What does this fold into?
Amino acid sequence: MIRKLMDAIREKQAPVVVGLDPSLSFVPHFLLEEAAKEFEAPLEIAAEAVWRFNRALIDAVADIVPAVKPQIAMYEQFGIPGLAVYKKTIDYSHEKGLLVIADVKRGDIGSTSLAYAAAHLGKVAVGEEKAAPFDADFATVNPYLGIDGIQPFLDVCNEHDRGIFVLVKTSNPSSGEFQDRLLDNGKHLYEEVGEKVSAWGLTSMDGSYSNVGAVVGATYPEEAARLRSLMPHTFILAPGYGAQGAAAADLKSFFDANGEGAIVNSSRGIIAAYKKPAYASCGEKGFADAARAAAQDMVRDLRSVL
It folds into this structure.
């Protein structure tokens, strides 16, 4: 699966993934008004507005980026209607030729971990039939429980040609409370996790890179440089560009010598671009045009340093 992502990045010359994290504060009010004409229940209204928002965004960026990354919590907050929109978003993204990174951050053990893996990446047997519940291409995974939590995902990835991104050094300011802890062997915890991810990845290679990737925050370029050397075959998902403060110049160390090996996420910086002064001329009803322009600007920005 990682080879498919790399091929899509090369084809579009855009190592960019758009985070579909539809907080209602990002959804234009007119979409809520339109949804309210067809639905009465508040959660159904919200979910329908989010669906219309996502569909327009996907249409706007599908030809310029290789992937999208829906964050499941932004859909779960609207209950069952929200989860239905999460699934519709994945399916529509696939229809438009996009790969989907499910930002679910799952982490458990045994049968529970296997159920998570099957739900998001694999298939579930129902009698003699097998069905794919959510059918994403990649999922984010928490490594805190060790290989017991990762192995079920590895098994599903190898069976169904899917991939995972394991949390290694996250972009949030307090990530260092645990991830930067210095261990007795002289390594930081994030380095130890990075080496584990690299080793796990050897069981699921797909060309020069593994289907087992790593999440490394764009806000930590020095740590990324260290991890890039520790994980030579590990593809990096880098959140934190734009709204969280990372710039293109911070991201060069995330990529390999060929300018490959990483994809950079932007969520609100693209999907809520119409709220930013630079794209305000698009107006609320031109939110999708603003998103497209912001995505194009991000692509150009990254190309300038790669």
In short: The longest helix spans residues 42-61.
